[in-house]
Amino acid sequence: MKDKLFKNILPKVSKPARYTGNEINIIKKDWDKAQIKMVFAFPDVYEVGMSHVGSKILYGLINEKTNHIMERTFAPWPDMEKVMREDDIPLYSLESYKPICQFDVIGFSLQYELSITNVLNMLNLGDVPIFNTQRGEEHPIVIAGGPVVFNPEPFADFFDAFLIGDGEELLPDFLDELYQNKQLSRYDKLIKLSQVEGVYVPSLYSVEYNTDGTINSFKPNIESVPTTVRKRIVKNFDESYFPDKPIVPYMEVVHDRAVLEVMRGCHRACRFCHAGTVYRPVREKGLNTLKEQAQNQLCNTGFDEISLSSLSTLDYSRVDKLVKDLIEQYGDKGIGVSLPSLRVDAFSIELANEVQKVRKTTLTLALEAGTQRLRNVINKNVNEDDLFKAVEAAFKSGWLSLKFYFMLGLPTETEEDLNGILILIDKIRAIGKEHAKKNIEIRASLSNFVPKAHTPFQWHLQDSMEEIEAKKKYLKSKKRKNVKLSFSDSRTSYLEGVFSRGDRQIARVIHSAWQKGCKFDGWSEYFKFEPWLESFKEHYIDPNFYTVRKRSYEEITPWDFIDIGVSEKYLQIENEKAIQEAQTPNCRDVGCVGCGICPSFEVEMEIEEEGKNAAESRI
Predict the structure, then answer these.
(1) Which domains can be identified in the chain, with CATH numbers?
(2) What is the DSSP string of 109-125?
(3) DSSP, residue by residue, 481-500
(4) pTM of the entire structure?
(5) Among candidate residues 288, 327, 66, 29, the one with its CA nearest the CA of residue 296
(6) What does the pLDDT look like over 143-173, one tens digit per residue?
(7) How many CB atoms lie within 10 A of CB 173?
(8) Following DSSP, what letter does each residue of 104-163 receive, concatenated?
């Protein structure tokens, strides 16, 4: 197949480097000696998948530290898919060029709900039955992990198992268990796998619904299967595996740089944030560990940028020291350091200027809401004084381009809150005119709020598409000159809302939409809304049931059986405090606020202390 690919197929498609493999630092293990053969499947194009940090961790971990194999495959772009179907080329891995149907396990990473149609398309291209009930003894076990699977139910019919929690903790155990039971039937293997903590096998559970469409009961079909599935976490984050030799693509990818995951989890307790809840507790890496990882990656890749990755990088205890040390060591070699969007209250102009020494970038600040009242509702503990001090310092230091993140449709949002966004931007422009030496550029990116499972807002209704469009129209009508506003698509947010809190009945809609040609739904040039609406109608499912309906605390949610360690009582209290516009401080400053994660998992936050590394601080 390799010869046919290179001679007949790849010359016909755009960006053939997506499909060739053989990159620097690729790992090719002996196929015949491997215990379990797994292909890691990313349901998006190569450039996106190769930028995902979790993929790099799992690829290195399984290949370097276990006797199993992990190879890679990505969603082919439509021009490549067309040629593959015409020439009968199955979806294959980039390491061995073997069809994905020849592997023991196909593991998808679900980072975004709308990538699900690409999953179906990839299975179909790989000659693997789409529904788990159609797979026999000869087919691979199809699994998924990632943030989306904290509510796996809308996708339950397509997967044999879901892995809930930190993959580097769970995946090796899963593969070991599968190898030890390889001689069993497919059904018996799945029963064994369901007993590994963090593994959910949907075919072993049944759901009954009430006449109004809500869930009446959810329970396992056999006694040995657990009634709840508890997520897995890495308890010693500082000593957890991280790749020293990540693959270097032969083409430009979205994030073409070395990455340091400085911490995992977040202590801020923003009430809208899914990742901030499901990835608790906070775990930091030691300063020396990170500097060593930076050195190893730079030596083995030739990257000229280091990105500090986490949910809230400025909250990393020793971020100033880390950035200064990295700039001091690598700055004169032209290697820069980049930071993601920043919290206003944690902003440090000295730190931002340090980053600017090597490479000029746009300064991005996350505000989320236009008024203090609404920021209190969502527990975004920042105020205007912090904001104005930050932007004044930035303009005085020579920054000319600033970007701000906001959300539309947050619970209790009013016209006054929308006006607040515009007023804030006006004030920022005025500060820029006073302190900047040249013309300034201000951009505001407005995404649509989608309530997520396992958050304090999981019971709230979502703004309808009409409401979101009205808010967009209002803001555009009031927009000032020299300010760029960008908005998310209300239709994709609507679908995301359906999937985020959906149940098993959604699967048939997803399958119908894929049959009608839906794929790459996260890409505006390929997104088609009408087939989705037709599919909902064909199956007599009202999508509004999942989005614009307020839920009671008593209702059984599709994700109730997943134990993330954060108690539902805490989420309810946080929801009530949101209505009262009351804030909850972060637990690092005031101590435990009662979310339940630390006692539930018998852990403490791993915080890097001055003069010690994380491991030492635990002694």
Answers:
(1) 1-230 (3.40.50.280)
(2) E--SGGGHHHHHHHHHH
(3) TTEEEEE--HHHHHHHHHHH
(4) 0.94
(5) 288
(6) 999 999 999 999 999 999 999 999 999 999 9
(7) 16
(8) SEEEEE--SGGGHHHHHHHHHHTT--SSGGG--TTSPEEEEESGGGGS-GGGGGG-SEEE
